[in-house]
């Protein structure tokens, strides 16, 4: 994983479209979505200083902040006085305890009733998104299975909706040591062990060209299969 994040796991392809071109495309995509009022305009993220970059990356890569690649929204707690139910009601409610193995375990899912759903229905997460836990056990990351797409999300996690970036690569980079170290440092400075959405947006990650992201994921999957 460490080699993958440094661009040393697989050979570089000089024909790959560099990551800065991908960033321009993502910016254009975001601008269009803002224009169509599908997303709100967010504050510009701070520039990445040289001393924030933990290691050298290939020339075709870029150091970016997570908020440059995904939109980030929080989940929502169950309204006071209300309780989740064990039977299949309106929608599943995904808790941090359900987040296992880069996916969501459906073995012990809880559900919301109609009255809860009416109050927190804006806080859904789909199979197009990535979850990332920000309280309790911090740093759990993964996909939403298609069969529970549209479930509601706990306030202890964030919904990350990627723009034009590989979802599987983002999951790998978010579970890597480079991200864990940043978050550990942030959490050591706060009394409450919760990662704010602002700090999550500001997380620094290495970004390869899109085609290389796919090759890295493929190679990692091969290696994990051998280890498993």
Overview in brief:
The chain has 7 helices and 12 strands. It has helices at 2-5, 19-35, 114-120, 167-174, 177-187, 197-201, 210-227, and strands spanning 62-65, 70-74, 91-94, 99-100, 103-104, 110-112, 124-125, 130-133, 141-143, 151-153, 157-162, 204-207.
Q: Give a quick account of the main beta sheet: strands, pairing sense, barrel closure.
A: 4 strands, antiparallel
Residue ranges: pLDDT <50 for 5 or more in a row?
none
Superfamily at the CATH H level? DNA methylase specificity domains
CATH class: Alpha Beta
Compute the average pLDDT.
Answer: 95
Number of strands: 12
Distance between the termini: 15 Å
Could you give the order of strands across the largest sheet? 2-11-8-9
What is the C-alpha radius of gyration, as a whole number of Å? 18 Å
CATH architecture: Alpha-Beta Complex
How many separate structural domains?
1
Structural class: alpha+beta
Q: What best-fitting shape do the alpha-carbon axes yield?
A: globular
Order of helices and strands: HHEEEEEEHEEEEEHHHEH
Please give the share of residues in helix: 25-40%
The CATH topology name reads Adenine-n6-DNA-methyltransferase TaqI, Chain A, domain 2
Task: Estimate what percentage of residues fall within beta strands.
Answer: 15-25%
Number of helices: 7
